[in-house]
Amino acid sequence: RNSVILPLVSNLSPSSFRSSSQLSSSHGPGFAKLNRREGAGGWSPLSSDKYQWLEVDLGGRTQITSVSTQGRYGSSDWQTAYQLMFSDTGHNWRQYRWEGRIGAFPGNSNADSVVQHNLQHPVVTRFVRVVPLHWNPNGRIGLRLEAYGCPYNSDTVSFDGDSSLIFSLRPRQTSTNTIRLTFKTLRNSGFLLDAEGQNELGLTLELQDGQLLLLLRRGKSSKQHLVSVGSLLDDQHWHRVAVEQHSSHFNLTVDKNTEWVEIPPWFTHWDYDQVNFQNNLDSQNSNRNFHGCVENLLYDGQNLIDLAKQRDQSGSVTFSCSEPVFVAVTFTDPRSFLQLPGDTGLHSAGTSLGLQFRTWDTEGLLLTFDLPKRDGTVWLHLRDAKVHLQIHKAGRAPVELKAGSGLNDGQWHSVDLKSRQYLTVTVDGTEVASASCPAERSGHSCRNPSRAFKGCMRLLTVEGELVDLVKVQQRLMGDYSDLQIDMCGIMDRCSPSYCEHGGSCTQSWSTFHCNCSSTGYGGATCHSSIYERSCEAYKHRGNTSGYYYIDADGSGPIKPQLLFCNMTEDKTWTVIQHNNTELTKIQPSTEGSQHLPHFEYAADEEQLMATINQSEYCEQELAYHCRKSRLLNSPEGGPISWWVGGPGVGQRQTYWGGALPGSQQCACSLQENCMDPKRHCNGDADRTAANDSGLLTHKESLPVRSLVLRDVRRPGSESSYQVGPLRCYGDKSIWNAAFFAKETLYLHFPTFHGELSADISLLFKTTSSSGVLLENLGIRDFIRLELSSSTEVVFSFDVGNGPLEVSVKAGVPLNDNRWHRIQAERNVREASLRLDELPAATQEAPADGHIHLQLNSQLFVGTASRQKGFRGCIRSLQLNGVTLDLEERAKVTPGIQAGCPGHCSTYGGLCQNQGRCVEGARSFSCDCSSSAFNGAFCDQGIFKENLVNESNGSSSPTSSPFLPNLNLRAENISLSFRSGQSPALFLYVSSHHRQYLALLLNNAEQLEVRYRLESSKEEEILRSKVRSLANGQLHSVSVSRLADSPENSLSFVSLLVSTDSQDLDPALAQLGSLGFTGCLSAVLFNSISPLKAALIRPIASSVVVRGPLIRSSCGPAAAKPHAAENTHHQPGQEGRGDPLYQQRLLIFGLFLCILGLIAAIIFGIASALAILIRFLHRRKGTCQNQELTKTEDNNRLQFASQSISQYGPTESQKEYFI
């Protein structure tokens, strides 16, 4: 090859130019040379439409690197966009493609200026064709042309299936062996090359269904398929192949696609002895051998074809490329059609029609024609990837034939239609005879198809005669529209596949689809993970403890793993188990002098290390129990035993749990309490039973991979070990934030590389109405994410097809100083944008446009351009699964604050059951001290079950928080119960003045409140008519009291008080002696949680516990709160997903029906009724009045009681108003 770039067109003769038409002889194609003024100053066609073209014959295969165009001199004729096409023979054209897509070049803006385009990749061709796509609307198509490049030299050989070449090679002692070649063929299958080596080992390249397969052979029959590359390689165009053998792997490259594959162990020691081309690899069937051309066959740089020429090893081959000419036609869209002249119907004497087609679509009309004398119509079409032939005749039952299957595989398929004594259809050699549609089948299967065919056809024959499609193109025969003649424009959009993370690719003629099921990823290309990155992220979306799929790097290569998340504490722990977390005793054995346990974890290595690296803290318990089995320090001073931990295979660690890395000590040494002060571990005292346990917290040494315990075989020695699961908490990325105080501030990072797929995820909060959150620029390309208004977020970008944008409107203000989540993604199929939990907005990418995002500036968080910047907080910024460390960059950027407090405005709704949100420096927590519930979100009830009194076997022990010196004018009491017992005493409240209130179930399984507020008065009872509350279902009760006098001071609250209380009413004492069997939970007296205090803090001074008190899980499962970030919804649904809204509903449902307003003055029945009516009016009917029975009138106390079942709207769920 000559490296000097030369003009290729200017010196050609006029006979080297051809065109679709010319306006006149002075507008002929021979005048279309750059900067020439001969003739009319360039080429112009007779009519300006999309079917015109200018063709140049360069005289031989030439490498082209760039193309320049001009308009026609001194005119208003120029093209504004054009397409380049190439051919070696003047037929079977191929379009120039960049980025795997058909490319259109920008043209001229006037008649005289020169526009030059350097080709993204050089093209080797003989014929060049320019197809104008758009032109000056005030003129015509006008063109002058120049191409630049250099001569191309090649050595070529043709194979016809029976010919062959054999090359004997000398093994070369090199680290890499390489075979390179270029081939073209019309056959989709055949053996291309076979390389033999020592010990009957061999390598084969084989075409199969248009793909190139690399196979390894052991002997003549045993083959192993390693890898397949490429697609549609039977298109009669040149394809480059390279096979690189390295020490441990092969690289197989076809055109621009490379696959890496590991070499099997049995094939590692192998060198080429001989390379065979068509050495009759399949002597039984020559069609299985290669038919086509090969050029520039190189073995480690040695030109084997040139060597064969010199040695006259021609055999039956020809050292040139002779190829048949097949003119194909491409139907590109539903408007495409081809009409042929003449009567091609089925005559009584017989006729035949034939064609070949290839497509990706399952449906499409192949051809149709009328029968003679318009006696009917014949339709040949695809449906369900099968060929259907339908014949409709007036007054007769329609005839339908079906043949073939799976015909949308992109391969060439032949169809032959023949009529002799009967009608037959043959598809790929399989013949089907005629059959009639049943009379009742008047539905879809016998109707005319309506969908147009999109694909390629060739070898159209009528009565055995080939239809001349070139004459059709020249408008000399038939008619057509929206066709590409003399080329097949099929593309394999699944090779290479743009489906990521194992998604499977399927395609139609114009697009492809990724099936992401079972991958753990979603989106048009299976790019973005559907799982959270950490347990911390799951917790703050409102989840509770359990197993969750964790994807540590989002859209990165690490696969999701199912891990356990412990969310019962303020800290959220990720727990990764291994194969032996139990205390394991070392059994006596005579085999070996050491014990070597290894630990396999329930997560892949990448997931394991990612979890450790992104966690704030990790720990793993390591314990050793022994007797006469020393651990670390031998008398000689060296370590006896050790453990291996850290990344990969790990490194030897000589310290034990609780000690410092590298210290060769145990925890007791740091605590200065070892059994032998001269030793650093208890076990090294080598006397009595000892224990050395502690936590390993140095993340760089975790996880524990194995133990090496050596002093375990001495007589009398005993030892056991335990390695706990790996536990980590904290997600360094989720709270990583920066505060931008001014709109002119920004952070900068290295250029974002998201050429084919780019995803951006972040959270923001602001009080500003607009601002650019993030942007990265290129020469023309860019990507930007911005808050365009107080209610709209916009994701915009340009990959060379012009700016595109996707926007989402929230419908509510986003500048509310609460956290909002944005997830944006751009891939080759579409762009998507999601805001909080609103439906994602999408925008499809232009068909066959540019797909690579090319950026070259720094990435700016905020903006450094003239756009309005962002003022507010940004956190948890991740691009393609990589977290950007905003805080570290903010620390060195003036004016920007690292971190961003203020989370309770967003996440406070997660704190349930009167829990209080407490701000933290990097997070938040829920204070449950005033709640009857416990847990990270105050959502876990405290339960007591099956209580029995020790004195008589039936009564209950007592848990009694005392409340001294309180003068309460109002009380709020709530609890939940589940029981099958009646009667039963739930709760008893009393004061020093012998006043009391009791809540119980009576013999009729009714809820009953008994109270006496003045010692001089009789006991009063409120009783519900609702029965069957002892049905084993869970019921919730709330009681509220409002007093008109401060005299009623309650001294203590007692749960299930035992019978020895002197202040207990005799009737209630008798009831209390029966005890209680069932479940109590969420007991709350004002802000005091007596059951919670008794079970969680029993040693507190205000708690007295008598007898055994057992914590249970008999209560309701904790409700899963909603994600706090997802606060905005579609119109008409606002607020329904807001946890604050739901919490208010819960509070209203439990406490709105307050029954009680104690009157200070008794004016008689009329006054009491007036006060009651006023009370009802103030609550506007929100409480439903239920009938209750009251044993005595009492105008000094009113109660509200509510009983709710967890099993749906039963009678026990009604609200009781007294």
CATH topology tier name of the largest domain: Jelly Rolls
Instruction: List the domain count as a whole number.
Output: 6
Which of globular, elongated, flat, extended, rod-shaped describes the shape?
globular
Count of distinct strands: 84
Estimate the helix proportion, in percent: under 10%
Mind telling me the C-alpha Rg?
Answer: 42 Å
- The total of helices stands at 11
Strand content: 35-45%
Residue runs with pLDDT of under 50 for 5 or more positions: 344-349, 435-448, 946-965, 1048-1062, 1117-1163, 1170-1218
Distance between the termini: 102 Å
Q: Profile the largest sheet.
A: 8 strands, antiparallel
Q: How does CATH name the architecture of the largest domain?
A: Sandwich
Average pLDDT score: 81
- CATH level 1 class label of the largest domain: Mainly Beta
Structural class, judged by helices and strands?
A: mainly beta
Main location: membrane
Disulfide bonds: 873-900
Domain Fibrinogen C-terminal: 526-578
Keywords: Disulfide bond, EGF-like domain, Membrane, Repeat, Signal, Transmembrane, Transmembrane helix
